[in-house]
Design brief:
This protein has 189 residues and is mostly helical. Helix 1 (7-29) packs antiparallel against helix 6 (146-188), helix 2 crosses helix 5 (123-139) and helix 4 packs across helix 5. 57% of the residues lie in helices and 0% in strands. It has 2 domains: 2-29 and 148-188; 49-143, Cytochrome c-like domain (Cytochrome Bc1 Complex, Chain D, domain 2, Orthogonal Bundle), CATH 1.10.760.10. The radius of gyration is 27 Å and the shape is rod-shaped. The two termini are 27 Å apart. The longest helix has 43 residues, at 146-188.
C-alpha cells in the first residue's frame, strides 16, 4: 500500500490545473461568439463610413459598444457578434432596424439597446452609422480592446501561477523523499 500513496496527490496535481485551465479558457472565450464573415450583398450601404464614425462618437454609441467597437455593456461590433435569431448581423436592414427600434433580451447583455427614433438620429445619420459598422467589419478585426487584453492577461497569469504551484509541489515531494531516504540510510549504518 505504501507504493500507491502518491496517486491521489499526483491525480490532484493533474486535475486541478486542468480544471483551472478549462475554467480560464471558458471565461476568456465564452463571451466571444464567432461571427459570420461579411457577405457580399451586391452593393455597399448608401451611407458614408467616415461620417458614420463621427455619428458613432457623438450619438453615445461608444459608451456601450466601445470606442473601437470592441464591446462592453453592449455587444462587440467588430467583429460583430452573432446574436440569437439573427441570420446575418451585418445586414444593413438588421442594423438599421436594431438602431432605430432598439433590442432587448439577448443573453449576456442586461442593458437593452435603446431605440434611436428620427427625432434623435436622422435617416442620413442612421445610414452613415450602418455604413461605418459594415466598413469596420470588412476591414477586419480591431486591435485588442481592454476587455480582450484583460482576459488574455488573466489567462496567462493563471497559467503561470498553476505551473509554479505544480513545480513547487513536485520539488517539495522530491525533497521530502530524498530526506527520508537519507535518514533511512543513516539509520542502517
Amino acid at each position: 500500500m505504501r507504493g500507491r500513496g502518491w496517486l491521489l496527490p499526483a491525480g490532484l496535481a493533474i486535475l486541478l490545473p486542468g480544471v483551472l485551465a478549462a475554467w480560464t479558457i471558458t471565461a476568456v472565450f465564452a463571451a466571444d461568439t464567432p461571427s459570420p464573415a461579411p457577405t457580399a450583398s451586391g452593393s455597399a450601404p448608401p451611407g458614408n463610413p467616415q461620417r458614420g464614425a463621427q455619428v458613432f462618437g457623438s450619438a453615445g454609441c461608444a459608451s456601450c459598444h466601445g470606442a473601437s467597437l470592441e464591446g462592453g455593456i453592449g455587444p462587440k461590433l467588430n467583429p460583430i457578434v452573432k446574436l440569437p435569431g439573427v441570420s446575418n448581423p451585418l445586414s444593413p436592414e438588421f442594423l438599421a432596424s436594431t438602431i432605430r427600434n432598439g433590442r432587448s433580451g439577448d443573453p449576456g447583455y442586461t442593458v437593452p439597446m435603446p431605440a434611436h427614433p428620427p427625432s434623435t438620429l436622422s435617416d442620413q445619420d442612421l445610414a452613415n452609422l450602418v455604413a461605418y459598422i459594415i466598413a469596420q467589419n470588412k476591414q477586419g478585426t480591431a486591435a485588442l480592446g481592454p476587455v480582450e487584453l484583460s482576459r488574455s492577461n488573466v489567462f496567462w497569469v493563471t497559467t503561470a501561477i498553476v505551473l509554479m504551484v505544480l513545480a513547487t509541489w513536485l520539488l517539495a515531494r522530491y525533497n521530502i523523499r530524498w530526506i527520508a531516504r537519507r535518514a533511512e540510510a543513516r539509520r542502517k549504518r
